[in-house]
Specification:
The chain is α+β, with helices and mostly antiparallel strands. Helices cover 42% and strands 22% of the residues. The protein has a 4-stranded antiparallel beta sheet, with no helix packed on it. The chain starts with 7 loop residues before the first helix and ends with a strand. Bound molecules: zinc ion.
Length: 79
């Protein structure tokens, strides 16, 4: 039996299942990736520069930190 001779439901089901598998793998990959990033940033403040948009971290417990690209002082967006 060639793949084109499969009954119609299987013929449509196979691409759907493959897509689900790929999406699941991508989801696991990205959740693992971002989970690891979050864990490694514990105890650090995250800053987003209002001048150039650069995102950076600073592990000092200060309300403002200087952007290392353009030198503007920014407030922490997440602690
Ligand atoms: Zn900046």
């Amino acid at each position: 039996m060639t793949p084109l001779q499969l009954p119609l439901p299987e013929y449509y089901l196979l691409p759907l299942v493959l897509n689900l598998v790929v999406l699941t793998i991508c989801g696991l990959y990205y959740s693992h990736k971002f989970g690891g990033t979050k864990a490694s940033l514990t105890g650090q403040n995250i800053y987003r520069c209002s001048g150039c948009g650069h995102v950076y971290v600073d592990d000092r417990d200060v309300p403002l930190a200087r952007c290392n690209r353009c030198g503007i002082m920014n407030e922490a967006v997440k602690r």
